[in-house]
UniProtKB/TrEMBL annotation:
Superkingdom: Bacteria
InterPro entries: GrpB/CoaE, NT_sf
The UniProt record lists the keyword Metal-binding: no
Transmembrane segments: none
PANTHER family (UniProt xref): GRPB DOMAIN PROTEIN (AFU_ORTHOLOGUE AFUA_1G01530), GRPB FAMILY PROTEIN
Name used for this protein in its record: GrpB-like predicted nucleotidyltransferase (UPF0157 family)
Organism from which the protein derives: Faecalimonas umbilicata
Molecular function (Gene Ontology), one example: transferase activity
Keywords assigned: Transferase
Pfam families: GrpB
Length: 188
């Protein structure tokens, strides 16, 4: 039987589950790991989501991650390689009862890293868009309960538009912060 798609109310424990898993991943990756971000819907307070914690470790050297596949497997992860995104290492935990996804990028993959962080931060600050996204995911989970491809296809155009808006918003925020810092320095 196919994996069940389920969208649930926000769970405050997701934050702690992220922290616990991030600590384990940082231990595996050691000094190669620069940081681990909580991304995806479970990282947005109040947002309905599939109960799967998405983690995004950023590393110095991506190829060095491959040396730790056995350690990831010992934690219950399935190593999937790039899994459709060039320059990524992807891991899934929990089989059909999926609990975690790990998306590892090297620090030079700024475009991919920024894309994930922009969407997360945008949803955290734009309640109406977050609510619309939650409603769409809930509707699609009911319609495509055992059809992951149908679920993903159903939200594809919304997610692409969301990503575009998030990246534009992030660029504006960056310029605004840069100008604010410049003004503070010159107002002295």
């Amino acid at each position: 039987m196919a994996r069940k798609i389920e969208v649930v109310d926000y769970c405050p424990e997701w934050k702690e589950k992220f922290r616990q898993e991030a600590a384990k991943i940082q231990e595996i990756l050691g000094e190669n790991c620069i940081t681990v971000y909580h991304i995806g819907s479970t990282s947005v307070k109040g947002l309905r989501a599939k109960p799967i914690i998405d983690l995004m470790p950023v590393v110095k050297e991506l190829e060095a991650v491959d040396l730790h596949n056995e350690e990831f497997e010992a934690l219950g992860y399935e190593c999937k390689g790039e899994y459709g995104i060039l320059g990524r290492r992807f891991f899934m935990k929990g089989g059909d009862l999926r609990t975690h996804h790990v998306h590892i990028f090297a620090e030079e993959s700024r475009k991919e890293i920024e894309r994930h962080l922009a969407v997360r931060d945008y949803l955290r600050t734009h309640k109406k868009d977050a609510e619309a996204y939650a409603a769409l995911k809930t509707e699609l989970a009911e319609k495509f309960t055992y059809d992951n491809e149908g679920y993903c296809d159903g939200k594809d155009s919304f997610v692409k538009d969301l990503e575009r808006k998030a990246l534009e918003w992030r660029k504006i925020m960056y310029v605004s912060e840069k100008n604010k810092t410049y003004c503070q320095k010159t107002d002295g």
